[in-house]
Structure formats: structure tokens, C-alpha cells
Amino acid sequence: MATKTPGLRYHCVTVNAGKHACPAAEALQGVRLLSAEAPRLPLAECATPADCRCTYRHHDDRRAGPRRARDRNERPEPWPNTDRRRSIGRRATD
User: Fold this and answer.
1) Phi/psi at 56 (nearest 5 deg)?
2) By the 8 A CB rule, do 52 and 73 touch?
3) Cβ-based neighbours of 39, under 8 Å, separated by 6 or more
4) How far apart are the first and last CA of the chain?
5) Which among 23, 31, 82, 91 is placed 20 to 30 Å from 6, CA to CA?
């Protein structure tokens, strides 16, 4: 019995505007959209839906590139070492 592989939680797509793409497709070019929220192709605003050559490009994650400093081989920002807690707690015994 074949088992189904689990879906990726943040699978996303980008719209690759084809040749002679409409302005709506060009506006979405490079924008990562969650797969469940991506518009159907051809777009509703497409001027020539019969000749539409737009496609989706699939990505495992909606984030592009490394986000943390250590992932980018940079030194992280120093911690400010400020303690914003008050000396008195909320309870009567504090």
C-alpha cells in the first residue's frame, strides 16, 4: 500500500510571466504566494487568456534566502543587556 507524503506547510509558488504577459502577471512576477492562496492561471485580469503562457514556479518555503545573521555568515547584533523587569512582582509575596 502506498503512503502519501506529507505536504509542506509553507509550499509556495511564484508566477513566471510568459512572453507578451499581461500587466497583472507582470505585477505578480517574483512575489511568493502560498500555494493555497495563489490565483488560478490564466489570471482573471488577463487580456488574452487563450494565449496565456504564464506558469508557476514551485518553492518549498515562502521565505527567500537566509534570514538569520549566522546563516548569512555574519556576526549577530550584540545583545543590549538591558533588564526591563521591575524589582517588585505582581504577587503580594514578591
Assistant:
1) -100, 145
2) no
3) 28, 33
4) 61
5) 31
Amino acid at the residue 42: P
Residue type, 25: A
Count of residues for the chain? 94
How many helical (H) and strand (E) elements, i.e. helices and strands, does the chain have? 1, 3
- pLDDT by 10s per residue, the chain, length 94: 455 555 667 889 999 987 788 898 999 888 989 888 899 988 899 888 888 889 999 988 777 777 777 777 878 777 777 777 766 677 767 6
